[in-house]
Amino acid sequence: MIHKVAAFYQFAALPDYRELREPLRTFCAGLALKGSVLLAEEGINGTIAGTPGAIDAFVRELAHGAMFGGRLDNLELKFSTADAMPFGRLKVRLKKEIVTLGDAAADPTRQVGIYVDANQWNALIAAPDTLVLDTRNAFEVAMGTFEGAVDPDIKSFGQFKDFAAQKLDPAKHRRIAMFCTGGIPCEKASAHLLARGFAEVYHLKGGILKYLEEVPEAQSRWRGECFVFDERVALGHGLKELDLRERDKDAARDE
After folding, report:
1. Within 13 A of 101's CA, how many CA atoms are on the CB side?
2. How many CB atoms lie under 10 A from the CB of residue 127?
3. 28, 180, 186, 226: which one is catalytic?
4. What is the DSSP letter of 152?
5. What is the helix (H) or strand (E) element at residue 28, kind and residue range?
6. Of 47, 100, 130, 248, most Cβ neighbours within 10 A?
7. What distance in Å separates the CA atoms of residue 142 and residue 65, rounded to the nearest whole number?
8. How does DSSP assign 188-225, residue by residue?
9. Catalytic site residue 180?
10. Any idea where the Rhodanese domain is (predicted)?
11. Please, what is the angle between helix 52-64 and helix 17-30, to 10°?
């Protein structure tokens, strides 16, 4: 059976996020969904999988149902598929942040970078005066990244602010284009840089996943695979599930 996978997030004021946990968990369990959902006062973030009908019902509830009262009407959504259920169980967790940076000034609901659609990304990163910045950790970058992108060499996103303080200069880096897997860390990262005085900060709307979904492989500036946080491990163009074991076997035969 083909499973539908939804990756989603939205920064939105959820002061009642603690009270939302059990109703959301019960709703997801009733649809036999599995995956992980994070709730915080600043919003929601998660990736879940189930039947296509169950995923559609889940998205409708978040965006239009009584549970969130219309506060999640601007969800960033990416859909993909998996041959087998990519999650072992359902988890609904409470967090201080839906993506951890540790900078109270980085509030995407107040200021955020300029969104760049996937079909406009190639032109932006090809410009000679653009610093292209991968905000993911070193393991993810090693699996794949955009041509010419700077690797911050961090172990977790929480270290990004230290990298920015040490390596980035508002006077020198006039235009920064950043990207991440699904788009959410870039929202925090761009808010952080704007708060520090950087003038032009762009980020890839919907992240790498949206780019791989929409940009044909023949026109792509992406190289490698995109790591995802489930049992599929990595996705390629068209958000196709990759069999890395077969790839490794082919590489071994070529050696």
Report:
1. 25
2. 10
3. 180
4. -
5. helix 17-30
6. 47
7. 40
8. HHHHHHHHTT-SEEEEETTHHHHHHHHS-GGG--EEE-
9. yes
10. 126-220
11. 150
- CA distances (Å), 243 to each of 82, 145, 151, 160, in order? 11, 19, 25, 31
Are 29 and 96 in contact by the 8 Å Cβ rule? The answer is no
Question: Which positions ≥6 away from 69 have C-beta within 8 Å?
Answer: none
As a residue count, the chain comes to: 255
Distance CA 251, CA 255 (A): 7
**pTM (two decimals):** 0.81
Q: What is the pLDDT along the chain (255 residues), one digit of tens a residue?
A: 789 999 999 999 999 999 999 999 999 999 999 999 999 999 999 999 999 999 999 999 999 999 999 999 999 998 989 889 999 999 999 999 999 898 888 889 889 999 999 999 999 999 999 999 999 999 999 999 999 999 999 999 999 999 999 999 999 999 999 999 988 999 999 999 999 999 999 999 999 989 998 999 999 999 998 887 666 557 777 777 765 444 443 333 333
CA dihedral 52, 53, 59, 64 (to 10 degrees): 160
245 neighbors 232 (Cβ within 8 angstroms): no
